[in-house]
Amino acid sequence: MARVRIIALCCVQLVLIKAGIAQTSIKETAHGVFKISSGANEKFTPEIFREEKSNVSGLQQLPKGTLPFDVSEIEVNIDDRGCKIAIPLGDGEQLYGFGLQIGSFNQNGMRKMPIVNDYPLNNLGYTHAPLPYYVSNKGYAILVNTSRYTTFYCGNNQAKGTKKKEDNAPAETKLTVEELYQTKVSGRNNVLVDIKGAQGIEMYVFAGPDMITAIQRYNLFAGGGALPALWGMGIKYRVKADFKQADVLNTVNYFKEKRIPVNVIGLEPRWQTAAYPCSFVWDKEFFPNPKDMISKLKAKGLQMNLWEHAFVSNKSPLYEQLYNRSGDFMAFHGLVPDFADKSTRDIFAKHHKDSLLNMGITGFKMDECDNSDITRGDARWSFPEMTKFPSGINGEQMHQLFGVLYQKAIYNMFKEANQRTYLDVRASNAFASPYPAALYSDTYDHKSYIEMIANSGFSGLLWSPEVRESNSFKELVMRSQTAVLSAQALFNSWYLQYPPWLQFDRGKNNNGELRKDKEANENIIRKLFEFRMSLVPYLYTAFYQYQSKGIPPFRALIVDYPNDENLFKVADEYMIGENLLAAPFSGNAETRKVYLPEGVWYNFNTHEKLTGGKEYLIKFKYDELPLFVKEGTILPLAKPVEFADSNTKFDINCYVFGAPKNKSYLFEDDGDTYNYLKGNYNIVELMAENGKIKVKRNGKFNLKRFNIVNTTYIK
Amino acid sequence: MARVRIIALCCVQLVLIKAGIAQTSIKETAHGVFKISSGANEKFTPEIFREEKSNVSGLQQLPKGTLPFDVSEIEVNIDDRGCKIAIPLGDGEQLYGFGLQIGSFNQNGMRKMPIVNDYPLNNLGYTHAPLPYYVSNKGYAILVNTSRYTTFYCGNNQAKGTKKKEDNAPAETKLTVEELYQTKVSGRNNVLVDIKGAQGIEMYVFAGPDMITAIQRYNLFAGGGALPALWGMGIKYRVKADFKQADVLNTVNYFKEKRIPVNVIGLEPRWQTAAYPCSFVWDKEFFPNPKDMISKLKAKGLQMNLWEHAFVSNKSPLYEQLYNRSGDFMAFHGLVPDFADKSTRDIFAKHHKDSLLNMGITGFKMDECDNSDITRGDARWSFPEMTKFPSGINGEQMHQLFGVLYQKAIYNMFKEANQRTYLDVRASNAFASPYPAALYSDTYDHKSYIEMIANSGFSGLLWSPEVRESNSFKELVMRSQTAVLSAQALFNSWYLQYPPWLQFDRGKNNNGELRKDKEANENIIRKLFEFRMSLVPYLYTAFYQYQSKGIPPFRALIVDYPNDENLFKVADEYMIGENLLAAPFSGNAETRKVYLPEGVWYNFNTHEKLTGGKEYLIKFKYDELPLFVKEGTILPLAKPVEFADSNTKFDINCYVFGAPKNKSYLFEDDGDTYNYLKGNYNIVELMAENGKIKVKRNGKFNLKRFNIVNTTYIK
Fold this sequence. Notes:
2 copies of one chain form a homodimer.
Chain A: E1 2-5, E2 17-19, E3 22-30, E4 33-39, H1 56-60, E5 75-79, E6 82-89, E7 95-97, E8 111-112, E9 133-136, E10 140-144, E11 150-154, H2 177-182, E12 189-196, E13 200-207, H3 211-221, E14 235-238, H4 245-257, E15 264-267, H5 290-299, E16 303-309, H6 318-323, H7 342-355, E17 363-367, H8 395-416, E18 423-425, E19 437-439, H9 446-456, E20 462-463, H10 473-484, E21 489-492, H11 506-510, H12 518-549, E22 554-556, H13 557-560, E23 574-576, E24 580-582, E25 591-596, E26 600-603, E27 609-611, E28 614-619, E29 627-630, E30 634-638, E31 650-657, E32 664-668, E33 682-689, E34 692-699, E35 706-714
Parallel strand pairs in A: 14-15, 14-21, 15-16, 16-17, 17-18, 18-19, 19-20, 31-35
Antiparallel strand pairs in A: 1-5, 2-3, 3-4, 4-13, 5-6, 6-12, 7-9, 8-11, 9-10, 10-13, 11-12, 22-23, 23-24, 24-29, 25-28, 26-27, 26-29, 30-31, 32-33, 33-34
Helix pairs in contact in A: 7-8, 10-12
């Protein structure tokens, strides 16, 4: 065992301290990013598989990093069981993160074990995106760079004191469970990190000065946030699993006929000759001419996305190539490709490129990469943790990283083809910020879905609270509102014959028993979808802020207002971009309370002016989005289009809420390539001057996508 | 990495095979018990802490051990991640065990991780008693002798085949979740065992020829099953947490006045000066004269049991003594004694002996030893897994073993005082069969509680499905019936002012709003309790069979009928002793189906003769126990007494169901010492001859506890 006290050196310098078996160093590896290393290097860390280099210039634009503690206070211990780390935790400090947590938000006092999984009941920490990472409202984030299962004790541990009779025991006898739960832990506290099996550890400390800057540093260090294709801002609709080519085209015709803005059509397993496991080959019986179908969709402005998972059927042309490049156990009877090996990712990607991307497919849904069903105890659904892979990564590490490595394989293919995309994926991990991939889940609790939007922003993740069936039209609308106000507006009808707004009941839907009020319902849904399309310019710009500055487009309020105690546990409201606050309805609520942070706000629908720092009651309305706007905002809303692609032009109405305090911006580029990274874009600056909006376009992109046609002042 | 193929040598002989870093041996360590060792020895295994030596003579009386596979087919691999084992699994073989599983019974195809925990939602395998152990209906049991967290994949894994295009993938595309779950795994199968962190492993194979013999071998190898004190067969009633001495005596007076047979009174935390954590010292304000109270109870035939947990308050006289003998983290602000160290257990026990046992306390309830609340994520309730202990055991191992080590400390004290007991405990593990301690739980799902009775018998465990409040009197009665038909009939009123049959609603109970029909209800409950007291001689003898032959007194039907496919998943019926089948009601059922195995059975209540191999419908009745009796049984039922202790004599009515096929037996000893182990007991043999029962008493115990007064023939 080696107990190591880290010597802080806040400069780019490497220091090694020998202490027993472990050597520990600390360096400022990037502006405000401190890397601590101790003991033997691990071969398979999230960092090693980073897709992008750090955005150094973005990091340089952030203020000097500060921390509420001295990095030297972090203690690392290594023994034959593994590594443990003790990180200082201040009194009253609030912790968040650990990836896409479901069912928990404020993590203080919790014992968290972020392990990849599809069905995270309870608060073990199981999640689709198990990041060994947390962020504090005191303005820093911690990432333990490991793919091993890691446990975090967030401050309720009680180290034995040095004094033998110190008074750290509660004075009275507790007679109820309630009393016991109220017991506070006294004395100096830490976050404890337990990494079983590791003989060395790296960790990153992302400095503040504040919470959002720490998160920005994390995202920029990962290479910057994702900027999906412009079409990804629209609505994605996945059709029923057994649809044939004609069914798909009929569905598209329905959308067009009814002017329902849908931007992407997703196919489910049956497009392939085999699934599960997958062949990655079109089934010509169901889809006789996929190229023709894709062209027809493109002509109507729609993209096509294909479902798959990575487990390779012996009916796939990839089988022979990947046989020796896969684990010694299978999943769903399919090969598990060793995605930790670049050549394996390349083979996998090449098949996708040659036979799917080249045909016009612009996105994939990457399912089942999250060790499905381990919490239901069924061993069929994935590979065991003892699985060995040719690269040397073990099964546990592979499980934790499988989602990011799968993203890496597919994203890289698109990037090399200079084609932007927007993917669906069931698992992710650290340093995934640059992947344009939205997580989704089978868990279907609406309240949790909203909370996951708030949680996603801490950890460089995107989350799509997909809509399927509902118990009532009201519930369907609430879910649809949340979807419209999320990073990806996804309707997943993989087991529904008709869109859910025509019949929200699954059984009746599939029996063709459509609602009598279906046209009224259709009108409401269309209005919500149209709002989404109005929001595209604002949203797309928020994503550009994510890419270039690391600011999460969707984030909990605590990120922007880290010292507001009333927000410590608010998980059902969140910010969209710089100036919008969303507060979706869930359950069967007619009304809900909305807490507005300090400052002055406007109700987006009623235009009522509201003073922050308190709660307001709002009423549910079918065709209104529960939104609030910060005073001083110039909000650019587009005239709704039926789809967005690289040719789309938007007519913009600028809504000015109160006296405009700041400029607003819009990001203008081709929308579907990486040319913006070579400077081929404009920043459209909007200034309110003398009752009208002045537009200034900076950049060399040659299409004026955004055209300001109107301005509305709201006092 | 060393892949080791074990050479089977079915004789007592040690063979070492060098293969890379691992050495592997196999020996028949006891009659029909094969020990396989590979790699480095572990220091802290369940086996090392066994309380009793193997019952060699009991084992010798079992038939020669046979197995459905060759032990040499078991494969062990060791690498730097840990150990993995592959154990052959036959087609159609059914697996059970893994300790006190909640929510699962038949474990085929499951991924199980038996980890100690109080709240085992889902099917991860978390349980109060996390045994790395399973038993097959093909007649063998496997115990992996480890206290590390271990994962078992029970047959649904899919090792990559050797042929590159072998047809192991399902032929068709699956479009529904239902279809996917129906997917069968083809090809050769194994149980895979994954022991992360271990650099060596021991395992035991308990041979058949049949399932019950394998379980008997396991129990006898552990030292034989528990034989609680005779008084433990009666009813245990725990009073409200804030009761004072006078309240306790009042409650006892109520029982006596109403002739409600209660045998043990349990006190909850408030008897101590501090809890949580515990002082283990009487609070004289609440209990001014505990010795007097205990004497008064004893005079009325009642024992006294005290709640505690093992975490030591700084208000305890044990604090100073245990400070350096405890872990470096605390739990509930109390010291965590290093129970892996004998001197620590002895200090802990000595305090209990001097100040509690010597005062007349005859049992303890050992709470919170199960890493409480880890699934709710709250870190306050126990010590972290990274905790270090002076003995060298790590926190993970300590968690797994804490319950058995705690039992060891307390049980040993009683044994040394030559005093039998019956304890309550919240955690256990392997080789715990000899501990007279019934597990209990806060989870309160009645259906699971019944299933846990069936599960307990596979793994050498005793389980008490405690009764607290209810939603209706009917539910209370159903729960009471299950309690009466379990290893310990426990009513836990720790938050109820009055017994639940006077008011089953918690709130009203504590407000003193008793039911108008309380006397009618009391009469029903009395009748159920009286049945329990009638069953004491039969039950006590079943426990003696457990002690001497290893036959679980409560066990799933599959144990006795391992080849009956209809029983593979039957978890809501179980055997009590040799000849009784119980089928408790749960939920709101008016009727339930009962499957009777092959042979002829009698409905205990209606005396109806029933042919086995099919299902029957029975109706719920408040005052009848849902029991069936095997044809040919001589069932000795006692005239109910209000309590049982070492002086109790029982008047017995023998019920003869059909033509008696076998003798019946009763075990007769002093009931509260270990003198029976020195031969001081009788076996009372009951034979039906010419219409009356012939009694033959073998042994040298000088009290005739059982007196046959009547015989009833049921044709």
